Every structure is written in C-alpha cells, then in structure tokens.
Predict the 3D structure of the following.
Amino acid sequence: MKKSILFITYDFPPILSPESIQVQRRACALARNGHRVHVLTCCENPDFEFLDHQLCKDHENLTIHRMNRLPGEKWLHYICGGLEITDRKFWWKFPAASTAIKLIKEFQIDALYTHSTPLVNHLAGLAVKETDRNLHWAAHFSDPWTLNPYLSYRTAIQRKINKMYEKTVISRADTITVTSEKTKELFVKGLEADRDKIKVLPHVFDPSLYTRRKTEPQKKIIAHTGNIYGLRSAAPLIEAVNKVQPQNLEFHFYGRMKEDERQLAEQKCPELIKFFDPIPYLDSIKVLSEADILLVIDAPLKDSPFFPSKLADYIGAGKPVVALSPLSSTTTQIVRDIQKELLVADSADVPSIAALIRRLDSINLTELRNEGKDFYNMNNSYENIREALFNE
C-alpha cells in the first residue's frame, strides 16, 4: 500500500547544498513510486544560503510547504550560533515542529523523515514524535553529531546538552539512516545505538544529468569540484605534482581553496594546476562529464566515516575516481567497490601521492572501469529508501 510521508528539512531546492540535493532525490524517488510526499522546508529566500533555482523539480505526488520568514530571522541565526545547541538554525525547531503537527493531521501522514544537516531538523522531529508515539519516524544523519571531528564546543555544558539531545533522538527514532557502514559502527560503539534499527542509505547520483564530451583535450584532465576547507588540504598534492612534473596530466580545481595553498600551486606548478571560480551545481556535472579523471581530497582522519556527496556525483559520471584519503576511510572503501583499479593515496603522504601521479601519467584510461556504480544510482534506490523510511 502506498503511504504518505512528511519530510522535515531546512535544506531543500532552491538551496544549493549537498543536503538539499540528496534529500530531494529521496523525495522524488518516493513520489515517482506512488507515495504522497510532503516536504516542510524554509522560506523561499532564506538568509545565509546560496540559491540555484535550476535545482527545483516538480512531481504530482510531491507537495512543498514553505515556512513564512520569521521576524528577526537573521538575528536568530547569530544568537543560536552562539548557543551552539545543534547549530545556528536551532530556532527552526519551534515553527517547524508546530507546523509539522498540523500537516500530519491535515494530510493523514503515515511516516516522518528528518534529515541533517542541519541537526535541528531532528529536534523538530523529536517534538512531533512526542505528540504521536505511533508515527513512524526515520532520522537521517549525513554526518555524525557530537562525534563529528569537524565540530567542537566552547564549553563542556554545550557538549553535554548536544549529547543529551543526540542520545534522545537516537533512542526515540524508529529508524536511523546513515551514509556509510563506518558511520553505523561509530553510532553503535560511540553512542550505544541499536544496531538493528540503523540502515545505510548512501548518497546517490542522478543519471539524467550527465552528458558526453565532444572534444578530446591534449592532456588527461583531473577535475576536482567543490571547496577545500577545514582539515582538508591540497598542499600534499601540490608538492607531489611539483615533484613529479607529469607530462600528460592537468589538474583543474573548481571552487574555493585556502589562499596559501593556491599561492603555493601558482608558485610551483602554474602550468599543471588550474583554478576556476565556483560554478552552479548543474555546470559542475558538465565538468565531471568532460573530465578524464575525478579527484576527491579527504581530511587525514583515520577510519573516517564520511561519504563526500561529491563522490556520488563522481560515480555517476562513470570516470575513474582518484582519492587522496586515509586507506581506512569510507571513501577508500567506496572507490575499492566501484572500480577495477584502487587509485588511492593517503591524503597526507607526499611520496605516496607522487607515486600515484606517476601511475596516472602513464596509465591507459581504457584499462579503468566502473564496476559498482549502479548501487549509487538514484533510480535504483527506491527499495532501500522505502524500507528505511517505512520500516518495511
């Protein structure tokens, strides 16, 4: 029997973010298969967000409910950012929960789905669940919460409050979904979560977006899309490129990079590493379609549980994927699964990266092929989504 479901997600097109794109794909997969999908999201022009209206999609079974802008919404972001409870959108919990309760009654909703980031979506879901314990609630974590190495709290009390909310969400939700097996194990071991109710829902790609390259470049183009920030660094790659001076490779970076690393590349190997401004999402898919090899750079975190959403888009392009990532990471495991050749080097190991570059400089691309890409195809994801969100 087809069911109705309510998504609570601050990020949804036209917001341009990995979460927005992935949650829309799950909503569309359910809608195309006959379920009635309602999405509760923010106003049309939210503060602090990049917008791309080309991302928006319609379906007869998909209804978008947008919140009205609250008075002083911009200041609420600043205030909540200082509180460090979930995130700067903590204020969203209150209008989202009250509106969701009304929508559930009006449209006779069968199941609830909350998606983070932002993490506050789960607090809205928790408030809704308290009003109806029989409503099936699935909570999706693209990244960990308090166990996320990218997050830090200024005080012990802030960490304690977040930990309390995190444990409550994980215990009250009927299903927890995560993007990788490593994140699942992190939740089980680090949070004592019930293994049986945690399902893996990986990021997926949309095969309809990709095109074929019309011309052949003189060199093999290795492309990286997206910003490099935080614990991620391109410096080891730059040092390795400078050391090897490959004859048949050219690196293209689309997005922002730390200024000192950009200057390092321009100083040491300007002919081999090219920089381009950030581009709209659909244009980035065209870049992936026309490149020869696709590059992902992870932070040097042992046993990293993160599944970069760009990796799903890379898989969809059907090109060889090169990963600068710890050998124990989720990224390395995925690359091992999808292609014949394991093109991986530790993201902080310059000699290993240099050896990989030499290999790429001489390799025949016809020797490389994707093997497991269909698993990450959004058109094949419906059964996994249905099972997780409806517990069927």
Observations:
- The chain has two domains: 4-204+377-390, 207-374.
